[in-house]
């Protein structure tokens, strides 16, 4: 015998939301029945008060007609038998009329043992009339004296009154009360069901569909059934569906990018060991070149050593690229002109016959981490060189201009070129990794890393101006030291600090 399949966690969660008291559907059902019952219950007191008033008026009219019998009888004398028949037919015990301010007893079967309570239908307040039926129902079965205006004898009578037991009134009120309760319960139940199914159809079901899609997406983002089906509604439900659809698409893109980065990291990890060996061999070769007496070799050797040193540090950190952030900068006062000269050489501006216009004074200094500032400047200058090299139909020599000014306690470095400008289609994602480059041979990491390094200093890197006349990037670094500030002593030799992944 095959084992019964176990319900999935998603179905368990959905069933709990649909049928358990804590679910939105169950709460809506309870609320609709509760509010419809309350509204129906509010209609019972006015209906019951109207029924009591009409019942009493019917007795008043019967008593008024009975009083006419005494007026038309011979010598205005009514036999005892006729009197009892009239009182019994009217359902009263005593009938009296008031004419000209004089109250006159018409019929009386017996004198009440207790003083009856008064119900004056002539001046009864509407608010008090709502509670009168319940006072009658909860009373002790006493007699009632009712006073009302005449209907048939308005010319000669001021008012009609009668005295009767309220036993029959209690029975009639009780029967009418339960009849009203049954009607209200039926109508309220039917109205509640209609409202419930309407709200459930237009609100709860769509929300359950959205919730179910979110749960399935959380369990398996690649599940095609987790994609929310848009209903095309233009209200808040439709907007929630559209936003969920966009969020799912964005998350899928992010997850795919993360998967690609993980695969890239795994591939880079495999070649990291060989790369370190190659760089070590290059360092050994540079050490041998240090023994050369050739002045050109001696002049180029320091630059080669610095480049190899940075490459070794980057190779050492490649295994932890996806698990760490950039190293916190160790800021110090750095000569900007010298840093620009070194960055321009590494960016190969001279090799590309691109002119570097340095509008930075010889004593101008900034507060930054020397290694990280070098990486930022190299990225900016290399991007400018590549933009100028790939410009089609360019007239005149390429030019990159760098200037600096102190602004609001910060150093603002501007790197401008006379290239073609940044294409409009990539401006919004210019600083996003793998997305901020318009060239097929570029990874788009340079500006992303440069901005990350600038923000690590507490500053920022922004695109200030771009267009056919060229592009201007602004690098803001907190702290603007005086121009004549004394530079710190050089770092001691020894193990160098990890610089993190580079451009």
Give a verbal description of the structure.
Among the domains are: 9-41 and 180-219, no CATH class; 43-165, Beta-Lactamase (2-Layer Sandwich), CATH 3.30.450; 329-390 and 397-478, Heat Shock Protein 90, CATH 3.30.565.10. Helices cover 50% and strands 15% of the residues. The protein contains 11 helices and 12 strands. It has a 5-stranded mixed sheet with strand order 2-1-5-4-3. The longest helix is centred in the middle third of the chain and has 54 residues, at 236-289. 23% of the residues are buried.
Notable traits:
503 residues, Beta-Lactamase, Heat Shock Protein 90, five-stranded mixed beta sheet, 11 helices, 50% helix, rod-shaped
Secondary structure elements and pairings:
Elements: H1 9-19, H2 24-42, H3 44-72, H4 80-90, E1 94-99, E2 102-108, E3 117-120, H5 126-137, E4 143-148, E5 159-165, H6 167-219, H7 236-289, H8 295-317, E6 332-335, H9 336-346, E7 355-359, E8 365-368, H10 370-389, E9 399-407, E10 410-417, H11 446-456, E11 460-467, E12 470-478
Parallel strand pairs: 3-4, 7-9
Antiparallel strand pairs: 1-2, 1-5, 4-5, 6-8, 9-10, 10-12, 11-12
Helix pairs in contact: 1-6, 2-6, 3-4, 3-5, 3-6, 6-7, 7-8, 9-10, 10-11
């Amino acid at each position: 015998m095959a084992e019964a399949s176990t319900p999935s966690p998603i179905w368990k969660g959905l069933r709990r939301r649909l049928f358990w008291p804590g679910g939105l559907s169950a709460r809506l059902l309870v609320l609709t029945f509760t509010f419809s019952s309350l509204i129906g219950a509010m209609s019972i007191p006015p209906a019951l008060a109207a029924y009591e008033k009409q019942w009493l008026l019917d007795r008043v009219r019967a008593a008024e007609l009975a009083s006419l019998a005494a007026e038309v009888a011979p010598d205005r004398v009514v036999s005892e038998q006729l009197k009892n028949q009239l009182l019994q037919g009217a359902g009263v015990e005593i009938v009296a009329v008031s004419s000209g301010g004089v109250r006159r007893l018409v019929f009386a079967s017996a004198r009440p043992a207790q003083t009856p309570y008064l119900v004056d239908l002539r001046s009864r307040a509407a608010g008090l009339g709502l509670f009168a039926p319940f006072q009658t129902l909860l009373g002790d079965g006493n007699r009632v004296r009712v006073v009302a205006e005449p209907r048939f004898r308005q010319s000669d009578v001021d008012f009609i009154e009668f005295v009767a037991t309220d036993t029959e009134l209690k029975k009639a009120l009780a029967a009418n009360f339960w009849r009203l309760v049954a009607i209200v319960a039926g109508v309220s139940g039917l109205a509640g069901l209609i409202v419930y199914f309407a709200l459930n159809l237009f609100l709860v079901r769509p929300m359950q569909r959205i919730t179910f899609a979110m749960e399935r997406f959380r369990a398996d983002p690649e599940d095609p059934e987790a994609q929310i089906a848009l209903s095309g509604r233009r209200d808040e439900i439709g907007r929630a569906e559209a936003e969920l659809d966009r969020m799912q698409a964005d998350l899928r893109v992010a997850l795919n990018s993360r998967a690609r980065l993980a695969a890239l990291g795994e591939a880079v990890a495999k070649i990291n060991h060989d790369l370190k060996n190659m760089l070590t061999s290059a360092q050994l070769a540079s050490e041998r070149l240090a023994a050369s007496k050739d002045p050109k070799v001696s002049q180029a050797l320091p630059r080669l050593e610095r480049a190899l040193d940075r490459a070794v540090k980057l190779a050492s950190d490649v295994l932890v690229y996806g698990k760490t952030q950039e190293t916190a900068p160790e800021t110090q006062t750095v000569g900007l002109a010298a840093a620009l000269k070194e960055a321009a050489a590494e960016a190969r501006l001279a090799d590309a016959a691109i002119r570097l216009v340095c509008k930075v004074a010889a004593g101008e200094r900034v507060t930054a981490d020397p290694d990280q500032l070098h990486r930022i400047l190299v990225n900016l200058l290399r991007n400018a060189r590549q933009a100028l090299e790939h410009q089609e139909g360019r007239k005149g020599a390429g030019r990159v201009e760098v200037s600096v000014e102190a602004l609001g306690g910060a150093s603002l470095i501007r790197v401008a070129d006379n290239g073609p400008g940044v294409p409009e289609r990539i401006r919004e994602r210019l600083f996003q990794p793998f997305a901020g480059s318009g060239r097929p041979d570029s990874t788009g990491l340079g500006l992303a890393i440069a901005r990350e390094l600038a923000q690590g200093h507490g500053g920022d890197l922004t695109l200030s101006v771009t267009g056919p006349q060229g592009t201007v990037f602004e690098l803001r670094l907190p702290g603007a030291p005086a121009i004549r500030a004394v530079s710190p002593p050089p770092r001691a030799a020894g193990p160098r600090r990890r610089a993190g992944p580079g451009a």
